[in-house]
UniProtKB/TrEMBL annotation:
Matching SUPFAM superfamilies: Homeodomain-like
Source organism of this protein record: Metapseudomonas furukawaii (Pseudomonas furukawaii)
Protein name: Transcriptional regulator
MF terms (GO), sorted A to Z: DNA-binding transcription factor activity; transcription cis-regulatory region binding
Highest rank taxon of the organism: Bacteria
Keyword DNA-binding applies: yes
Keyword Ubl conjugation: no
Family annotation (Pfam families): TetR (PF13972), TetR_N (PF00440)
Key words of the record: DNA-binding
Residues annotated to bind DNA: 28-47
Domain HTH tetR-type: 5-65
Length: 221
């Protein structure tokens, strides 16, 4: 890898860490440059502004979700696939949590990113609907087409708004832990509870137990 590429990758990686821990709005290009021990001019050689770094990070997030949010090829979906999807979502949300935390601001600040995000959202909804239909076809979920569509949309709403919910209940400056995000994935799984086929319930119950986080840990007194 060429030195210029190594430096660019390092800027992107360290920016992600700063955005996640401090919030994107609290981090400037000067903060990033100082954190990396480089001059602002050196950073601008690779990225003209912070928005270009955010666009690069969104591209990474987009590619990651696109890679796992799809129906398996050549076979029916299984309960094990459900575990894979939920764990993959949890990991992506954790690694790019600043995108979920500051999404509205990010999209208001960049019209091109807003268009790209809408296309990404539609793609995710289409793929998620295909996955839920796959669970219905496999006999794991017992749902009508209208119920499947509603489940898809409700799951998307929870996933994309969960970090903001945590910020409003715990304070903007509160740390977001993996356990707190895990409860958000649990909420998605809980939406399916009334539609599970009897034979799928034991395996899914184990998933419930793995993802459950007590409510008082989410909304402190």
């Amino acid at each position: 890898m060429a030195p210029r590429t190594k430096t660019r990758d390092r800027i992107v990686l360290e920016s992600l860490g700063l955005f996640n821990t401090q919030g994107e709005r609290n981090v400037t290009t000067n903060h990033i440059a100082a954190h990396l021990g480089m001059s602002p001019g050196n950073l601008y050689y690779h990225f003209r502004n912070k928005q270009e770094i955010i666009t690069e990070l969104f591209g990474q997030y987009e590619a990651r979700v696109d890679a796992f949010l799809r129906v398996p090829e050549g076979r029916a979906v299984t309960v094990e696939d459900k575990t894979f999807y939920l764990e993959s979502l949890l990991a992506a949300m954790w690694d790019f949590r600043f995108l979920h935390r500051d999404l509205e601001h990010l999209l208001e600040s960049d019209a091109e990113l807003a268009v790209r995000y809408r296309q990404f959202a539609q793609r995710c909804l289409d793929h998620a609907l295909g996955i839920y239909r796959g669970f219905v076809e496999a006999g794991i979920l017992l749902m009508t087409p209208a119920q499947t569509e509603a489940l898809t949309l409700n799951s998307w709403i929870i996933i994309t708004s969960w970090v903001r919910f945590l910020c409003t209940t715990r304070g903007e400056s509160a740390d977001i832990s993996q356990d707190l995000l895990r409860r958000g994935i649990y909420q998605v799984l809980a939406l399916e509870g009334g539609y599970l086929a009897p034979e799928a319930q034991p395996a899914v119950k184990a998933l419930y137990e793995k993802l459950y986080v007590p409510l008082d840990a989410i909304v402190p007194a």
